[in-house]
Amino acid sequence: MMFDDSCANGSGSFSSRERAGVRGPRVWDKAPHPNPLPKGEGKEWAHSKGQGRDDLWKYSAHTTTPLAKRLSVLRGRRKCQGSDVRCRVTHVAGQATYQAALAVHQQICEVAAHVLGCPTTAVALDNSACVVHSAPTRRLTFAEVAAAAGQHPLRAQTLYRVSQSPHMSPFTAQVAEVEVDPDTGQVMLLEVVTAHDVGTIINPLGHQGQIGGGLMQDSGYGLLEEMPINEGRIGTLSLGEYKLPNIKDIPPLRTVLVQEEVGPAPFQGKAIGESSITPIAAAIANAVDDAVGVRLDDLPITAEKVYQELQSREGRTP
Hints:
This protein is an alpha+beta fold.
C-alpha cells in the first residue's frame, strides 16, 4: 500500500461482545396438508427485515425432514410479543422453527409406524418415503402417510422462550489502519481487519454481507455522519449535506473467522448482525491517536476536529 511521506500513519484496535437472543418468545406453526400429494405450509411470526430469517427456516426444516422440499411459507400476520430484529432472529425464531420441524418429523414417523405395524423408533425418512430400518422394502410415501392421517393434519406449534442472553455470545475484534494529514487533519481509512467468533455459518454470503455492511455503516458513523443542531434546527436537511460513506470510502477489508462448534442457534450457529458495526469507530479513534496523538471522544472524527486539536496542542488558534 502506498503511503504519503507527509502524513502520519497509525493503527488502533477495539473488541466487543454481542449480547443476543433475549426479550420475548417466538412461535413456529408447521402443518403438512393431508392430501394425496402433500405440500406443507409453515406459519412463522418473525418478520423479515434482511436478518436471515428466510434462509433459516428453510435450512432448519430441510435438515430435519425431507418433507421440507415440499414446504412453502405463509407470512404470519399474528402479533407477536417482543422484538424480531437484530441478532436474535437466528437464535430465537430459529430454535422455534427447528423444534417444530422435529415435532412434525416425529408425527410422520408415528403415523407410518402405526400403518406399517412397527415401533416408531424403527421408522426412518428416506427421500420422499418412510421406511423400516430392518426391512427397507416396507415403506410408505409421504402422500400415503398424509392420507393415513385422515382428518388429523400433521401439525406442530412450538414456543421458544429465552429470558437471558446465552452464555455463548459472539466476540469481535477489529483493527483499523489510518493515514492522517497533519496539515489539514484529514483522516483516511487505509485498511481494516475484522475477526469474529462464529459458530456454524448458515448462509455464508449473507454472513459476510452482514460483516461488510456493518463495517461500512460504522465507518460512516466514525468518520462522516454528523447532524448538527443550531438553536433547535437541524443543519443537515438533505443527503447532499449529511455525508454517508460510498464505495470509494471503504478500504480493503480482511475478515478472519474463528469458528467454534458451539452456539445457541440451530446447528450451533451464532449471531453476526451487529458484531461488525460495534467496534470500528473506536478502533479508528485509537488509530488516529496512535498516528498524531489526538484523542477525540466526539464522533465523527472529522478533519476539522483533528486540525483544531493539532493547532491547540501547538498553542495556535485555528
